[in-house]
Amino acid sequence: MREFAFDTAQEPFGQRHPDEPAPQLEARNLSFSAGGLQLLDKVDLKIQPGSRTLIVGPNGAGKSLLLRLLHGLLKPSAGEVRWQGNALDANGKRAQAMVFQRPVLLRRSVFANLKFALSVRGTRGTARQQKIERALASAGLGHLANRPARVLSGGEQQRLAVVRALACDPELLFLDEPTANLDPASTAAIEDLILEANGRGVTIVLVTHDQGQARRLGEELVFLQDGQVAEAGPARQVLDTPQSEPARAWHEGRIYLGPNTQPLRARQERAS
């Protein structure tokens, strides 16, 4: 991977002041390489309990990869992920949930998808039934309870994926572009579920490409470029007055190629 540096005047993201609580989730010098490529490079990140942190950046910046590392689905090449002050372990992972861009649903009914997820978590009997009913009602899926989950529309499938994750009462919810390619009504419904959960104290870490969504949902914002944090801070600040060139380009709708990347035309001219 090429060498580059980003010039930002900001303090390290998530730097804690003495009167602030300890981070719920923390990445320290987090790096990941594969096939000889450095895909994520020395990411430091602190997530406070009950916060909403949005991760943005161009395709290939490492956003989805970062979520998988934070959730413990992948092992970092270097650095570590800490949960409530300790190394992330099985108990920490159990306190989290993740919703992917493409819903991963069982070949069962809507009701059975919820029932299975809760059963795995050890919820049975009346408590399970009540959780399922509340989840279906919150997602507006009660009338579809007996329908096969995989024949639902894209928006309905994603709503099911979100409430299935939330039914397990996670302390932190990761969402990887949960509204990509969805219509405005479905997007609004999912954002409402996210905000409602956050209002109950669930910490939200969400990847998005949508500047409008970043404004609607973001409290803190992390901008990734080429596997590094180019800029981070309060969402409004980064969105309205970005300091780094990658974030400014994104804000202005320009294509950022990086200091060591030449446009295709220049590469073709040099090769001829």
Contiguous uncertain segments of 5+ residues: 1-12, 262-272
Q: Biggest sheet, strands in spatial order?
A: 6-7-8-3-9-10
DSSP summary, beta strand count: 10
CATH superfamily of the largest domain, please? Answer: P-loop containing nucleotide triphosphate hydrolases
| Rg on CA atoms, Å | 20 Å
Percentage of residues in strands? 15-25%
The DSSP helix count reads 10
Anisotropy-based shape: globular
* Euclidean distance between termini CA atoms: 25 Å
The helix-and-strand class reads alpha/beta
Oligomer: single chain
Assigned CATH class of the largest domain: Alpha Beta
What sequence of helices (H) and strands (E) makes up the elements?
EEEHEEHEHHHEHEHEEHHH
Salient structural properties:
Rossmann fold, 6-stranded mixed β-sheet, 4-stranded antiparallel β-sheet, 10 helices, about 20% strand, disordered C terminus
Concise description?
By secondary structure, this protein is α/β, with parallel strands linked by helices. It has helices at residues 63-70, 90-94, 110-120, 125-139, 154-167, 184-199, 211-217, 235-240, 245-252, 264-271, and strands at 25-34, 37-47, 52-56, 78-83, 86-87, 96-99, 172-176, 203-207, 220-225, 228-234. The chain starts with 24 loop residues before the first strand and ends with a helix.
Layout of helices and strands, plus pairs?
Elements: E1 25-34, E2 37-47, E3 52-56, H1 63-70, E4 78-83, E5 86-87, H2 90-94, E6 96-99, H3 110-120, H4 125-139, H5 154-167, E7 172-176, H6 184-199, E8 203-207, H7 211-217, E9 220-225, E10 228-234, H8 235-240, H9 245-252, H10 264-271
Parallel strand pairs: 3-8, 3-9, 6-7, 7-8
Antiparallel strand pairs: 1-2, 1-4, 4-5, 9-10
